[in-house]
Amino acid sequence: MSKRDFLSTAGLSRPELDDLLDLATRVKGKRPGQVLGGKTLGLMFFQPSLRTRVSFEVAMVQLGGHCINLSADDLYELEPGEQAIMDGRAEEHVKDAARTLSRYVDALGIRAASRSGTWEHDRRELLLRSYAEHASVPVINLETCFEHPCQALADVLTMRENLLSLQSRKLTLLWCNHPEPKSLGPTHSVLQLAALMGMDVTLAHPLGFEVDHEVLERSKQTAGAAGGSVRVVNDMTEAARGAEVLYARSWGCTKYWDDNEREAMVKRSLHDWRVDEQLMARTDNALLMHPLPVRRNVAATDAVLDGERSRIYDQAANRAHVQKALLMQLLK
Ligand code: CP
Fold it and tell me: Ligand 1 atom closest to Cα of 150?
């Protein structure tokens, strides 16, 4: 039987998503027992993490397994290119690292979200995809520039807990300002799952911050087939009107992906792209979501982040529950 990876929300079918969310709901608040006793999850973080790292460790321990955690400082610089002549900085090829690690651990989680070139280069998720190709154990995407599928599972579970059915519910995915260039991973992944659930999604961003064209077109098709819709607006006030969920997150400008200074210059005039009480008042009493970490009073004000409609900590808590379900499906 071929191994299963979890790299993207794009390949999930509706029954697969429902199964995962139902299992997460069943394990939530319960200890499902030592179902992964003796199993080891290897985690590799090439960028910092609080939630992903801790929630995976907690999930594995509560299922009877354990984690080995590696950060960029622990690892050799890796070469993902096929037939590369390795006379540069990379000390080890991904295929050798992946095949070796597959002899030690039962699954691998990888966060590889750094900017290393143009958008056309980084959207290919070369390091993650190369690990998935060469590892003989399941590989889990812990965030790339392109996707953050585990975050999106937690987001959809959080919405489902609050709204019950997500069919035709109004979700606004709102770009907000941030001093640093951010990945498009959480936005792409939640957009694709919201489309699969048949939600009416409004994607709101300033001109120049378009999401990946293929992700957008695929999401429109998926949503249409599921009885929902995806529209794009460039006006945050219009985007907020009637929203039942307002999901705030910054993401980078793909046009200037390899030019941080240019992106920073563009963002100088975009400080208004921030969630505050005035904007929330235009919604249909929306839930406020954000995957965290959040720049308080830049992306969203303290008042809304700490307000009664905020679900930001529920999202973070649900990471552990959806990941338990995922690990049970991949490893049991
Ligand atoms: N949302 C999220 O992935 O958080 P971390 O970067 O802390 O893992």
Answer: 3
